[in-house]
Automatic annotation (TrEMBL):
InterPro entries: DjlA_N, TerB-like
One Pfam family, short name: TerB
Co-chaperone DjlA N-terminal domain sequence ranges: 12-111
Protein origin, superkingdom: Bacteria
Protein name as annotated: Tellurite resistance protein B-like protein
Amino acid sequence: MKIQDIYMGLGSLVYAIARADGHLHPLENKVIRQLLEQEPFGDVARCAFTLREFHRETAEEAYAFALRHFRANRVFMDEARKADFVSIAESIARAHNDVSVNEQLLLERLRADFNAL
């Protein structure tokens, strides 16, 4: 277990949120880059995001990958980090127009999954 693994999960999570409405918008990409630069292992998260994008994974595939990493490394998933990751996901969902129904559903699912960790 390494803390970097949860940041692999974060990169996958932000990809899932960005893709939840069907495609990645340029403004979302900019917000993702800015937000991840502020994280301690943001470079790791950005690499995970780029891999998901390169392979054109679905939002569901990326979300499942993220949750596997969060669960496997739950020792690093304290309440502050969970809140930070939810805040990042919400910022990405708001980056382009209104939050879509699919983005909102994924955010609700994330909160529920984090409560279960």
